């Protein structure tokens, strides 16, 4: 591993090793308290953040490293100064770059022109750190991730892309259930399905909500991604049948509910499900730090 740009860039062994290391760091953080001693990590954020910013900042501190946060007070990346110059300059001082951007091309540019590891902390195409935390959370409840049946319900977005690649590499079955016109990117689907076939898994897409039956975990996200100017009123009727509620959970026979947060309570998911016994949302949030620390230790430790 030179960077973490997308889960699809990993091998199955690399993914499993990251999940194993994340579990070890969570179980025995003191063992890794000096893993990044003397290392500095720059975080570039074009988008607002709670979990990503806090989990990276505190996580880097727990590993004995130093974190520097840069927002967009000097203008968006590539505007005031080119992405190439940003990357090359930061590489003079920092040991790694964490980037949360609107355009995936920005993350790619940082990795191409910088000389230090780059971690994608979210782009319009992928959210690999979230995907790692999600599969770490599932691994805490299922001994064999290849046997997990995961359903993603709602808008086929960047989180969905990363989950598809994770499930594909693990050889699991994942069903993506979206309203017509809101499926994940066709190229990403083809790539994920190819990887799934190589590892004995399966990625299935459908608009039929009844396909929810027979899944272990149900995952949903906001119906409108951050930065999208679409009005909720314009899509609410189309998405309403895809709300995750008690009836849908029971129909699926699912034991767990997942959401990357932030959530619109009462919109894509009901309070009853979010706060229910099988909800993993806080486990996912906590595991963001441990999964990201596993990536940092792998790249820099």
TrEMBL record:
The gene is argF. Residues 2-140 form the Aspartate/ornithine carbamoyltransferase carbamoyl-P binding domain. The keyword Transferase applies. Its EC number is 2.1.3.3. It comes from Shewanella khirikhana. It is found in: Cytoplasm. It catalyses: carbamoyl phosphate + L-ornithine = L-citrulline + phosphate + H(+). This is Ornithine carbamoyltransferase. Coiled coil: none annotated. Residues 147-298 form the Aspartate/ornithine carbamoyltransferase Asp/Orn-binding domain. L-ornithine binds at residues 158, 221, 225-226. Pathway: Amino-acid biosynthesis; L-arginine biosynthesis; L-arginine from L-ornithine and carbamoyl phosphate: step 1/3.
């Amino acid at each position: 591993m030179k960077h973490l740009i997308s889960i699809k860039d990993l091998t199955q062994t690399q993914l499993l090793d990251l999940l194993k290391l994340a579990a070890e760091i969570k179980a025995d953080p003191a063992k890794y308290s000096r893993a990044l001693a003397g290392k500095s990590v720059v975080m570039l954020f074009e988008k607002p953040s709670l979990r990503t910013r806090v989990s990276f900042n505190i996580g880097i501190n727990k590993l004995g490293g130093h974190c520097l946060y840069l927002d967009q007070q000097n203008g968006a990346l590539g505007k005031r100064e080119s992405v190439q110059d940003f990357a090359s300059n930061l590489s003079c001082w920092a040991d790694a770059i964490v980037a949360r951007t609107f355009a995936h091309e920005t993350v790619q540019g940082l990795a191409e022109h910088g000389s230090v590891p780059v971690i994608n902390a979210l782009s319009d195409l992928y959210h690999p750190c979230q995907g790692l935390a999600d599969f770490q959370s599932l691994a805490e409840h299922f001994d064999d991730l290849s046997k997990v049946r995961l359903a993603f319900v709602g808008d086929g977005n960047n989180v969905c892309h990363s989950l598809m690649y994770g499930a594909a590499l693990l050889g699991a079955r994942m069903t993506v259930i979206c309203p017509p016109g809101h499926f994940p990117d066709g190229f990403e689907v083809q790539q994920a399905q190819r990887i799934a076939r190589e590892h004995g898994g399966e990625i299935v897409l459908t608009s039929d909500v009844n396909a929810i039956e027979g899944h272990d975990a149900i995952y949903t996200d906001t119906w409108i991604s951050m930065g999208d100017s679409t009005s909720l009123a314009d899509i609410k009727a189309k998405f309403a049948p895809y709300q995750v509620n008690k009836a849908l959970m029971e129909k699926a026979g699912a034991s767990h509910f997942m959401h990357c947060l932030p959530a619109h309570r009462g919109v894509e998911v009901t309070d009853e499900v979010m706060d229910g016994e099988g909800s993993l949302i806080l486990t996912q949030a906590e595991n963001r730090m441990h999964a990201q620390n596993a990536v940092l230790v792998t790249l820099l430790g």
